[in-house]
Amino acid sequence: MQYIQNPISTVCMGQACSMGSLLLTAGTKGKRYSLPHASIMVHQPSGGAEGQASDIAIHAKEILKARDRLNRIYSRHTNQDISVIESAMERDNFMTPEEALAFGLIDEVIAKRKK
Fold first, then answer.
1. In 3D, which of 82, 85, 43, 44 has the Cα closest to residue 63?
2. 21 closest CA partner among 65, 71, 68, 59
3. pTM, full prediction
4. CATH 3.90.226.10 fits 10-109, yes or no
5. Which Enzyme Commission number(s) are on file for it (predicted)?
6. Quick one: how far is CA 86 from the chain centroid?
7. 39 Cβ neighbours under 8 A, 6+ residues apart
8. Which residues contact 103 (CB under 8 A, 6 or more apart)?
9. 46-83 pLDDT, tens per residue?
């Protein structure tokens, strides 16, 4: 999304959970919206691994790298300190549109389509 030069509007109409919340917040600053009764959820990445111990260690290392990368992306788009992002992402964290606005995930809660 950041590669595209045109402005990108994002709108949460019902739920934006997990990677959906990242897509919502990665829209162009000032053009990230939510309807009033929507729900936005952020959390750290999850996954599973099986097999040999060395393979499990490889997967664990990769998921930790993904968590750090995602935390930096959320931090950049919300202007929140990385420690705030890490705390918010620790478990499933559901937010109302007003909470998402205060957190910096969106820019406006809209009830009617703008003309």
1. 44
2. 71
3. 0.90
4. yes
5. 3.4.21.92
6. 12
7. 12, 14, 15, 16, 17, 94, 95, 96
8. 78, 80, 88, 95
9. 988 889 999 999 999 999 999 999 999 999 999 999 99
Q: Is the pLDDT of residue 114 over 80?
A: no
Token output for 81: 């300190």
Which pLDDT score, from 0 to 100, does residue 115 have? 74
- Per-residue confidence (pLDDT) for residue 2, from 0 to 100: 86
Query: Is 9 considered catalytic here?
Result: no
Residue where the block lists tokens 């099986």:
50
For 22, the enclosing helix (H) or strand (E) is: helix 19-25
Kindly provide the b/e burial profile for residues 95-108, where b requires at least 16 CB atoms within 10 angstroms of the residue's own CB: bebeebbebbbbbe
Catalytic residue among 9, 21, 37, 43: 43
